[in-house]
Specification:
There is one protein chain. By secondary structure, the protein is an alpha+beta fold. The protein has one domain. The protein has one helix and four strands; from the N terminus they run ββββα. The strands form two sheets. It has a two-stranded antiparallel sheet with strand order 1-2. The chain has a two-stranded antiparallel ribbon with strand order 3-4. The protein is globular and about 35 Å long. The model has no long low-confidence stretch (mean pLDDT 93). The structure holds zinc ion (ZN). The site of zinc ion (ZN) has 7 residues, from loops.
Length: 54
């Protein structure tokens, strides 16, 4: 099973739940790069949220 990674525009590689910052605005949370705050596309964030370092 291949792990999803997301290369942020700031250069950070996002792999795990803890690489994201949750921002609750209204009903739906948005997920952002924890380093720079750039929003991560929802479908990618969804996958990253379920990945944890072993
Ligand atoms: Zn970033």
């Amino acid at each position: 099973m291949a792990a999803t990674t997301h290369r942020c525009i700031c250069g950070a590689t996002l792999r795990f739940r803890q690489d994201l910052r949750k921002e609750q605005q209204g009903i739906y949370p948005t997920w952002k790069c924890k380093d720079c705050g750039t929003p991560v596309p929802g479908k990618i964030a969804e996958k990253l949220r379920h990945q944890h370092p072993s």
